[in-house]
Amino acid sequence: MINFYGTPTLETDRLILRRLVIEDVQSFFTNWMSDERVTDNLIKGAHKSISESVERVTNIVNEYEDQEFCYWGIELKATGDLIGAIDFYHFDLTTENCEVGFTLGYEWWNQGYGTEALKAVMEFGFRHMNIHKIAAAHNIDNPASGKIMQKVGMKQEGLIRHMIRNAKNQYKDCAVYGIFQEEYLV
Ligand SMILES: CC(C)(COP(=O)(O)OP(=O)(O)OC[C@H]1O[C@@H](n2cnc3c(N)ncnc32)[C@H](O)[C@@H]1OP(=O)(O)O)[C@@H](O)C(=O)NCCC(=O)NCCS
């Protein structure tokens, strides 16, 4: 059985993973959600105005009432900046599997933060939540995302053609990855 604890604060060497609060809206919008370099790799497009981010962050904050909601803001300890977000979603209570998604602001790419955040939620997901399998997918134009999946021990399981259609109406082929709890905990 999956143990749901909501979204507790997790800490790594350089990061604090924590719940978003409504005061995070400006950082959420400025640091990644309005930036096409970041959102090009996601299904939903960039936010054009801060009101879209107000609505999204308000929804996230309200969803924390649900114990099954796992959505962390990624805060950089050194500066206090909110630099991205990472979440578990699509929990399947029959298989006890879920998926993980992550986003970092462009300014903070390629400094190991994505890997560090993914490791932290995987540790929490497998050791404390008792998730059976964590899966993820990235479009093949976005190799950095696949790289961090590999770096935390996820294995590529296949490639799905036209798995997503992004906000620019482009179909993308995606590589799918996964890792089992028993593989992680060896
Ligand atoms: C995917 C993402 C979270 C990665 O975060 P990050 O903090 O930059 O990742 P890390 O620094 O931990 O690792 C990135 C790795 O990708 C590698 N990389 C970067 N660009 C690459 C490229 N074009 N081709 C191959 N490898 C690449 C880096 O060299 C690094 O590997 P290394 O440590 O072995 O050198 C970040 O790029 C991002 O937010 N992208 C936009 C949103 C997104 O794509 N989300 C995932 C959707 S599936």
UniProtKB/TrEMBL annotation:
InterPro entries referenced in this protein's UniProt entry, alphabetically: Acyl_CoA_acyltransferase, GNAT_dom, N-acetyltransferase
This protein's name: GNAT family N-acetyltransferase
N-acetyltransferase domain sequence ranges: 15-183
PANTHER family, per the entry: GNAT FAMILY, PUTATIVE (AFU_ORTHOLOGUE AFUA_3G00765)-RELATED-RELATED, N-ACETYLTRANSFERASE DOMAIN-CONTAINING PROTEIN
Pfam families attached to this UniProt entry: Acetyltransf_3
A GO MF label: acyltransferase activity, transferring groups other than amino-acyl groups
Native source species: Paenisporosarcina quisquiliarum
